[in-house]
């Protein structure tokens, strides 16, 4: 099914598809967190009523955040991540 961005019928924000992802990638680059955090976009993490959902692995704890539907909200998440500092790198699932 893919991402909810730009698909209000799937629970996502009313944006042009792809726009929010581009803005979030830019915000991530500008936050200079590369090497401290890993950013990847995936297919749906569900549930649609809570879109957009992001997953963080911070200091050994999984953390799910919901309704990250604006670049401003995403920037707040990045600021928080910068504040808590680097934690252990999350495990990568075997393919």
Any key phrases for this structure?
95 residues; two-stranded antiparallel sheet; alpha+beta; 27% helix; single chain
Structural write-up:
The two termini are 20 Å apart. This protein has one domain. A hairpin with a 2-residue loop joins β1 and β2. It has a two-stranded antiparallel sheet. With 95 residues, the chain is of the alpha+beta class. 8% of the residues are buried.
Please count the helical segments: 2
- What percent of residues are in strands? 5-15%
Cross-sheet strand order for the largest sheet: 1-2
In terms of per-residue confidence, which ranges show pLDDT below 50 for 5 or more consecutive residues? none
Précis, in short:
The chain has 95 residues and is an alpha+beta fold. 27% of the residues lie in helices and 11% in strands.
Topology:
Blueprint: H1 19-30, E1 54-58, E2 61-65, H2 71-84
